Predict the structure of Histone deacetylase family protein.
Amino acid sequence: MRNFFSPAQLGHAPTRELHNGGFTAYAETPSRAQQIAAAIGGAEAPGDHGMAAIEAVHTADYLAFLREAPARWAAAGRPGDAMGYVWPIVGRRALKLDRIDGQIGRYSFDASTPLTAQTWDAAYWSAQSVLAATHAVLEGDRAAFALCRPPGHHAGADYYGGYCYLNTAAIAAQAARNAGVRRVAILDIDYHHGNGTQDIFWERGDVFYASLHADPATDYPFYWGHADEIGDGEGRGTTLNLPLPHGTTRDPFRRAQAVALDAIAHFAPDLLVLSFGADTWEGDPISHFALTTADYAVLARDIAACGWPCVVAMEGGYAIDALGANVRSLLTGF
Ligand code: Q9C
Ligand code: ZN
């Protein structure tokens, strides 16, 4: 199985985030990617597939904002990383504002996701890694792994948040569609709901989104991922949310995954994108499920047994010392 990762993804290193009412060290560190790369025997640098696949998912004004915001923040005389502090209430007009602070509110949804001068390059190469894995699968590989970091599933077409800037799973799914793949399914087994991916494909009948995640009644991102969210319009019935309680162990997780795989099988995809977060691990510092390292291989075998060509995109996972072993365990299942 080929693995893809670019060293340019390491440049993004925000110093801190707002967490539980105070500033803490940023959890989504460059060392996450280094630990994973070391544990899986290294990774190939992706080629540069350019902007087209990114522009097929994200709006032009959002991409321009992401690229320009850090310089504008610095020009405003601000030290440190660009961080927002004001957000529009749901339903407010999407005003075209001038000041950087207003624009951060417009293009983000939380205070845990700073922008740095290196953020754009790292996110761009994270997207190139998933595109390289997608092309490997389109060219006949059964599965390929993209060591995406920064992660992607919280980023929408025109917003960032949850440590995510460009939605790598969505970029992979849309690139496959544009290459002629008729139906694509995304299975998201990160601890958190992939609100960005859900939003991007909400009204799409050609891309199925299924997610297992901590119940948003108790967990981030709170405002998405409830069981009654099923998509709309052409996409009505092609979104499936399976919230799970704190303490979830392998067997209930595996049963929920089987429900998702059944629904995906009914949809009959030609390709699967797996959004994989290892923050479901029992020792994760910001999460509350109880999967073990060995469980990931079991879950991956259940997925692989369905027979769909599979692009695996890395999402979360914050127990740095266990992260490499957890990803290696998952990949052995393919
Ligand atoms: N006090 C991913 O796993 N912080 N993102 C939650 C709770 C944001 C996680 C704060 C968690 C984002 C890709
Ligand atoms: Zn997560």
Notes: The pocket of Q9C (ligand 1) is lined by residues 19-20, 112, 151, 154, 162-164, 190, 192, 220, 277, 279, 315-316 (CB under 6 Å). The domain at 2-18+27-58+116-332 is CATH 3.40.800.20 (Arginase; Chain A). The chain has ten helices and nine strands.
